[in-house]
Amino acid sequence: MTALVLLGGNAAQAAEGATKRIMVYGDSNTWGYVPVESGPTTRYPADVRWPGVLQAALGPDYEVIDEGLSARTTDLPDPTLPQISGAGLDGSAYLPAAIATHLPLDLVVIMLGTNDVKKMFNRSPLRIALGVGKLADIVAQTKGGVGTSYPAPKVLILCPPPLGTVAPPERAERFAGGVEKSKALPAYYEAIATAAGADFLDVGKLTATDGVDGIHFTATAHAAIGNGVAEKIRTILK
């Protein structure tokens, strides 16, 4: 009986060790923000959000960890939302702790940059892409976290699809000039991913930004992203 228990335990450990662990790091479109014309909103259920679709598509040999935060930028603090204290909305400030929290990780998937196109940040597409490159470098440098010897995970950089028609008018003003910037991002993101030794996927080839507010995704878009990213991840972690 003891031998069977030990064998069972070893088998369980082997199965656990074989599981590929993926952390998805993003903003409101990773968090699952339901697009609305104005006012407060709610969050899509876990199985509708694209990380949940990704988990279902990849199956039980993978574990997808959802680290989405509404209004998160690549590496910028946002003074308009002081209620998020600590690392705040600066993706680069929180990323090391997020990685260390979820180790071991095989892959970190980054989809950020939509909030960087806001008018108040006055960022060029190149500067936004450099912010994403900074995140890829953080992943490479974080490695074992606190007191462990895990290797640095691989990185997959996702370029968000271009913004749609942003509404209502006050939101359109906040994102003034953002549509043009968002359309220019894929080429810069791909170049930065290549320079950083990361994998790359243009999410705009999977779906448009189809929510009524021109910023967020419908459930249909979430499904397209989750399934498309799953296909890419299989090639990375085969």
UniProtKB/TrEMBL annotation:
GO molecular function terms attached to this record: hydrolase activity
Domain SGNH hydrolase-type esterase intervals: 24-224
Hydrolase in keyword set: yes
Keywords annotated in UniProt: Hydrolase, Plasmid
InterPro entries on file: SGNH_hydro (IPR013830), SGNH_hydro_sf (IPR036514)
Protein name: SGNH/GDSL hydrolase family protein
Organism name: Skermanella cutis
Lineage: Bacteria, Pseudomonadati, Pseudomonadota, Alphaproteobacteria, Rhodospirillales
